[in-house]
Structure formats: C-alpha cells, structure tokens
Design goal:
This protein is of the alpha/beta class and about 400 residues long. The protein has a single domain, classed as Purple Acid Phosphatase, chain A, domain 2 (4-Layer Sandwich), CATH 3.60.21.10. It has eleven helices and eleven strands. The chain has a six-stranded mixed sheet with strand order 4-5-6-7-9-8, with helices on one face. It starts with a helix and ends with a helix. Belongs to the metallophosphoesterase superfamily. MPPE1 family. It is found in: Endoplasmic reticulum-Golgi intermediate compartment membrane. This is Metallophosphoesterase 1. InterPro entries: Calcineurin-like_PHP, Metallo-depent_PP-like, MPP_MPPE1, PGAP5/Cdc1/Ted1.
C-alpha cells in the first residue's frame, strides 16, 4: 500500500501539466478577448464629439439640446454568396458589427447615415441572396429606439447606371425606405438623400423621375428660405420647411479631377491620388454636380464611393467630405465621421477604427510568445544563460 506522501509526489507532475494548460488557455483567451472585443472600446473611447463653432453661447443647455449628433459612414460592402468566402464574410462582418455597436454604446448618436454600397453584390443578388444579405445587415447595424438609421443607395446596391433596373431600385427602397430626393428633417436641419446612380443625365425613366423629385424639393426649399412675399404666387401653395440650408447625402462624390489634393491618414495611397477620375463612374459628371449645387446651394456635401477620405471645396464656399470605407476589406484603417450639427452650423470630426495591421501584429507576437512558453515548459528551449555557461566551460577546458 502506497503512503500518502508518495501518492502526492507522483501526482505532482499531472497537477503541473494541468496548471500549465490552464495558464495557456487563459493566455489565449485573453488575447482573443482583447483583439476581438476590447480593442474596439479602447480605440473608439478616444473619439469625442466636435463642438459647434460660433453661435450664441448664452444658454449652453439650450444649445446642447438643439445640436444633432450624427455618425456618417460609407461602403460597408457586405459580402454576398457569389464572391464572398465564408471566412472572409465572418471576419469582416464581426469587425464591422463590433465597431458599430461599440460606437453606438459609447457615443450615443441621434442619427446614423450610411452613404451607399451597403452590399457588395446587390446588383447581382437573387431574391433569396438579397433576403439573406438584408437579414445579416439588420443584425449587424441594428440601432436602439433613440437612434435613427438612414441609408442612401450606392452602385453596388442597385448596379451602375447600365445595370440599374426598377426592380433593383424598388427592392432597395422597400427595405430602407429610401427614395431619391427624399428630405429628412431633424431638429430643424434639412438632409437631402440623392440617388447619385440616377444622375446620369441621359433621360432614362428612373433618371427623369429622380431629377423631377429633386427639382420639386429644390423649389420647396427655395420658397421656405425666402422672406414672405405676397406677390410671389409660385410659393403661395408650397408647404414651408425649416429655412436651414440643406446638407446633401449621396454615394458618388461631386465632380473632381482626382484625389491629388486630398490629404490625411485616411486619404488614398500616393500611387492612386494622381489617377484621373472617370465621370459617371468614379464621380458625378460636371453637369450633374452643377445641377445639384444650383438646385440646393447646400452648406455641406457628404459622399462615399472612393473608399478614402477627402475634403474639397466647390465654388469656393461649399465643402464636400468624402467618407472612407467602414470595412477592413477596403482599408487598413477604416473610420467614420462624427458630426455636431445645428440649423445654422456644423462641426465634423474623424473617428478611426483599429488598424488591422496592429491587430495582426498583436496576434503574431502572442503566437511567438506562446511557442516560447511551450518549448520552455517541456525543456526543449535551452536558456541563454545555460548556453553561455557551456561556452565558458569549453573555453576553460581548451
């Protein structure tokens, strides 16, 4: 019969192995939790809402309630069944869902705008594939009751102009309650949603209908901004809107030659900046851009499509901000725009998401450390001091 002391000695190696295994599990779990969950809180926590410049600051409480806090993002490109590998879909959708839900929880915006290309394969999707993509989108980008979600159409959602059909446009409008020329007014601020794919200017049925709505809305806004005039019969029966100058929201940017003048860490790579943009493909045509500027005289234009950030000035006074892609599939450093907006002013701030290269570096470093720990535990890795001691002993023997 074995004594209790001998049993304890023989069971000690097993306990050590279990303890080491437990430590490894804790180490791996900690790395996964940090890289796939906590890092989003750590990075987005550093983002702050910009303060609106100017204005009357006599009543800070009144001003804070009149400021609309908006998050603007673009080009999520949810992968479909044709080109999307399941592992790529799983990874990208997890990243975007965690980023979006973390931003909602930390920043608590009043409204979120997504500027098109919600899906990557909307232009090809079968009814079943479309329903599956919509279901996944609604899960990833679900918002609390206190936050409104507004989505603008992009070319990957309904196709470029030559691919666009009434069926594709209607199914997008049905899901997202979107129409070109739709006006969204919140806290006295006018936002105009534009189907930029329909701004081809070739007189197609969808293009004519879209432009007609925009022209009618332009007339309504112009009448609302005019001072009351009994002699102006054109505005006598027009329903008045808040007199605030509108903000244009669209997928294609207004016309610009290239991204050569763009700067910032979210701008296009240097080798891409000087590539000329193609009208009606990379940007709106000059004619369509002038129409929108003439019709609405916006105080701000927000667009996506290029996957890179850019700030340009049109007609010397109208700023346009191109929002970078929200997907790591398109950028190493995705991001979004935070806007503090009032009826007369606005202030924008960029918020960047975790760099994927840094996440991968963290995983590689953790993997290397894990290998070293395992080799050291099983005494398969010679400690440096033992190796040095052996060299010294050999030298003395000689």
């Amino acid at each position: 019969m074995l004594s209790p002391g001998l049993t304890t000695v023989r069971s000690l190696p097993l306990k050590k192995r279990l303890c080491f295994l437990l430590k490894l599990v804790c180490f791996v779990s900690s790395v996964l939790i940090f890289c796939e969950f906590l890092i989003y809180y750590l990075v987005i926590f550093q983002c702050r809402w910009p303060e609106v410049k100017g204005g009357d600051h006599s009543g800070e409480k009144e001003i804070s309630t009149s400021v609309l806090k908006a998050i603007i993002l673009a080009d999520t490109h949810l992968l479909g069944e044709i080109k999307g590998h399941w592992l790529d879909k799983l990874r990208r959708e997890w990243q975007m869902e965690r980023s979006f839900q973390t931003a909602l929880w930390l920043l608590q915006p009043d409204i979120v705008f997504i500027l098109g290309d919600v899906f990557d394969e909307g232009k090809w999707s079968s009814p079943q594939a479309w329903a599956d993509d919509v279901r996944r989108f609604q899960k990833m980008f679900q918002c609390p009751v206190s936050t409104e979600l507004v989505v603008v159409v992009g070319n990957h959602d309904i196709g470029f102009h030559y691919e666009m059909t009434a069926y594709k446009v209607n199914r997008f409008e049905k899901v997202f309650n979107f129409t070109s020329g739709k006006l969204v007014t919140r806290k006295g601020i006018n936002f105009i949603l534009v189907n930029s794919v329909a701004m081809e200017g070739d007189g197609c049925t969808l293009c004519r209908a879209s432009e007609a709505k925009l022209v009618a809305l332009s007339h309504q806004l112009n009448c609302s901004q005019q001072k009351p005039n009994r002699s102006d019969k054109r505005c006598s029966n027009v329903e008045k809107l808040p007199a605030s100058e509108p903000i244009l929201l669209q997928h294609y940017p207004l016309y610009r030659k290239s991204d050569a003048e763009c700067s910032g860490e979210d701008s296009a790579p240097p080798e891409e900046k000087k590539i000329p943009f193609k009208e009606k493909y990379d940007v709106l045509s000059q004619e369509a851009s002038q129409k929108l500027l003439w019709w609405f005289r916006p105080r701000l234009v927000l667009s996506g499509h290029t996957h890179s950030g850019c700030e340009v000035l049109h007609a010397g006074r109208i700023p346009e901000v191109s929002v970078p892609s929200f997907s790591w599939r398109n950028r190493n450093n995705p991001g979004f725009i935070m806007g503090s907006i009032t009826p007369t002013d606005f202030s924008l701030q960029k918020c960047f998401l975790p760099y994927e290269s840094r996440v991968l570096t963290t995983y590689c470093a953790a993997g290397a450390l894990l290998v070293i720990l395992v080799l050291a535990h099983f005494q398969l890795l010679t400690p440096p001091f033992c190796f040095g001691q052996r060299l010294i002993s050999k030298h003395k023997a000689v």
